[in-house]
Amino acid sequence: MAGAVLAGLDGQKIDIDEATISAFKGRVRGGLLFPGEAGFDDACRIWNGMIAARPACITRPSGTADVMACVELARKHRLLLSVKGGGHNVAGTALADGALLLDMSRMRGVFVDRAARTVRVQSGCLLGDIDRETQVHGLAAVLGFVSETGVAGLTLGGGFGYLTRRFGWTVDSLLEVELVTAEGQVRRAAADEHEDLFWALRGGGGNFGVATSFVFRLFDVGPKVTAGLIAWEGQRAEEILAFFREFTAKSPRELTCAVTMRLAPPAPFLPKERHGKPMIAMVICHSGSLEQAQADLAPVKALGNPIADLVVEKPYVDQQRMLDATQPKGMHYYWKSEYVSSLSQPLLSTARERFGAVESPMSQLIFFQLAGAIAERAVDDGAVGNRDAAYVCNIAGSWSPEDARAEGHKEWVRRTWEAIRPFSTGGAYVNFQSADEGEDRVRAAYGKNFQRLVDIKKKYDPENLFRVNRNITPAKG
């Protein structure tokens, strides 16, 4: 066994001697991996294949005690520390060059309390892990749209999905977080304990420590919903977008829709003659009764002549997995997004025009429906804020690693974003921010809540140990 060289908090190289490495390995059940060892490369593979950062070593904790030991080592030696939950963040915040990486993937316990209608989940869980267990009881947490997303990143960034219109942001049903803070201590953050920390964790990202578990309130949803995708030829975009605007403005909270414009993929449910040609589609999830869903969705069905209609009664867990195939691991992803308060005609016209310039067969321009329950709380009810958002517009650039037109695809995203920004509320979803977005964009994500987050950061992490994230206290130097 030898020592190791890791990146330090101040950009310098830190030599960790053999004795320190040996002592650390003796304290953690999860072990310590170095480049070339079995499992190291797999742990470095995250969803966004465009992220090329490589940690110096990796530990995979089996429990909170391992996390405490890792944080203590990083604090004592001022090591750059990163944390990987699901590794699904578009900015690649799980990885940093030369860092000590905490890979939480072995901590995936899910414990449902049916009587209390709550679930405790460990922070290495993916959304699919939680849906699988809660749906046994006909219950669901407010989670995202892709089952391979990590619960920790989703939640700490605020979180939204098909159930947000009914029940609020993911953090609106968050009851408790177990956190290892910068001093290496375990804290329970909840409405009745470390209230300031709990407020910050409800949307403030990974700035305050390493979350080891979360407790969520559960709701009666499933096991079946009426959901799926319905698509039309791209030349109907003006008609479908106008319909989407009117339809979503008055739809009940049991119904959530998103509309996406993209080039039709070579999917078996789409006609071969449409592959590679522009299409517009609505992704739909109705969590009410079958009878209510049929009545509420009748106007969508009446649009007629779709090129695909997959909206049926189906298991909720299947709907939660439906979009996984559109975001395969290892592709290159580059996103920009904005919250908007309405879908004005100029905004929709701009979106159509910009979609017409897309070249990547995997890129999309998406409007996710929000509003509803998120607007019923004060803007400072949790750090997440943005309770005036009725939709989130995501310009989701994606392409193959072998695609030589990468810069052109990124430029399409940037230009589309610049065209959309005049319609923004001024806010942005922190989980949709790419790595090249600076402090101004982090401020935009939190608005009036930003300064309060800074103050809480100074209290719990004055040295900014937790900085490999969408950081509210950017590292200096």
Structure description:
The chain is of the alpha+beta class and 477 residues long. It has 3 domains: 4-103, Uridine Diphospho-n-acetylenolpyruvylglucosamine Reductase, domain 2 (2-Layer Sandwich), CATH 3.30.43; 110-220, Uridine Diphospho-n-acetylenolpyruvylglucosamine Reductase, domain 3 (2-Layer Sandwich); 224-439, Vanillyl-alcohol Oxidase, Chain A, domain 3. Helices cover 27% and strands 23% of the residues. The chain is built from 14 helices and 20 strands. The chain has helices at residues 18-27, 40-44, 64-77, 127-134, 151-156, 164-167, 195-201, 237-250, 290-301, 316-321, 345-355, 406-420, 439-446, 450-460; strands spanning 4-7, 13-16, 57-59, 81-84, 100-103, 110-113, 118-122, 139-140, 174-180, 186-190, 210-217, 219-220, 224-233, 255-263, 278-286, 308-309, 312-315, 332-340, 364-369, 391-399. The strands form 5 sheets. Strands 13, 14, 15, 16, 17, 18, 19 and 20 form an 8-stranded antiparallel sheet that branches. Strands 6-7-11-9-10 form a 5-stranded antiparallel sheet. A 3-stranded parallel sheet has the order 3-5-4, with helices on one face. Strand 1 and strand 2 form a beta hairpin. The longest helix has 15 residues, at 406-420. It is globular.
Question: What are its keywords?
Answer:
Uridine Diphospho-n-acetylenolpyruvylglucosamine Reductase, domain 2; 8-stranded antiparallel sheet; Uridine Diphospho-n-acetylenolpyruvylglucosamine Reductase, domain 3; 27% helix; 3 domains; 5-stranded antiparallel sheet; 14 helices; alpha+beta; Vanillyl-alcohol Oxidase, Chain A, domain 3; 477 residues
